[in-house]
Design brief:
By secondary structure, the chain is mainly alpha-helical. Helix content is about 45%, strand content about 5%. InterPro entries: DUF433, Homeodomain-like_sf, WH-like_DNA-bd_sf.
Length: about 70
């Protein structure tokens, strides 16, 4: 994982589940929300400790890690 990653994994935080760095908000919660019919604004309203910038950084990091460029 990149040192500047928006993802933090620490066994002492949320039992080691990946969270947004500096928060206790699991990445899984964001992923689940993205797969629902709810508006993204609802996610940020429900989890004000996660910024839009962090969400965009997460999406960029996912693209870097998982998508192969040709």
């Amino acid at each position: 994982m990149r040192e500047d990653s928006v993802i933090s994994i620490n066994p002492k935080v949320m039992s080691g589940a990946p969270v947004f760095r500096g928060t206790r908000v699991p990445i899984q919660t964001f992923v689940d929300h993205m797969g629902s019919d709810e508006d993204i604004k609802d996610f940020f309203d429900g989890f004000p400790t996660v910024s839009r910038e962090q969400a965009m950084e997460l999406i960029d990091e996912i693209k870097e890690r998982l998508l192969v460029t040709t």
